[in-house]
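Subject: Sanity check before I submit

Could someone independently write out the structure tokens for this chain? I want to compare against mine line by line before I put it in a report. The sequence has 256 residues.
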Amino acid sequence: MSTSDRPLAGRVGVVTGASSGIGAATARALAAAGMAVVLGARRADRLAAVCTEIRDAGGIADACPTDLRDETQVTALIDTAVARHGRLDALVNNAGTGVVRLVEDGRVDEWRTILETNVLGTLVACRAALRHMLPRGAGDILNLTSVSASEAWPYMAAYAGSKAAVHALSQALRREVAERGVRVMTVAVHNIGTEFASTFDLDILPAATKRWEELGLLNRRARLLEPADVAQAIVFMLSQPDPVSVHDLEVRSRAN
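---
Independent answer below. Compare away.
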């Protein structure tokens, strides 16, 4: 197989939220591109299944069950990748959660879960990765955000706020580490066919969807994108030669 078929050969990466959706698709795509991947997520059985699939296809994959809300587990995920493979070249912070609910009806326990997973979990993972990347003067951190971070999506204020925070912290982190050899990139996604909405309150979702359509935020006639579409964009970004950096990329259906 040629280098162009495996542009990430010899590299080691960690993917969070890798038990399904964009995370699982990204782990598969990175492995197919030659990267040894370590997968983190809460659902150990689903992680194991994705790893088996990758190995059966000839890739290298390890599972490390991780709750992004637990600092010790997040740090252990990163350190496990280095312990098993001797290095860390890439971190893809994909894990995220959200709810549909008006702020006036907001629940603090839901807000806390969103912020601890989406923002604090991302920060802890970045810190752990940098402890290995900065001494080498090389590495990639790629954080998943959402178009809701820059658009006004009612019913998703807490989630949108968390993703706006991820975008802002990514920009600040880039200023901190770019001259020391580490790339920091973001991918903002829109309406991808994943399990993300499977936990949304079905009593609220119809009203939310109707409002999103009224505001022009969502075109339900547009073809729904697949997690693999985002994964291929991530492979493209990580495959760019130094010092090229695709700082911020938005992935959405043509009609959205």
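---
OP: Matches mine. For the report I'm noting this point. The beta strands are 12-16, 36-40, 61-63, 90-93, 139-146, 182-189, 248-251.
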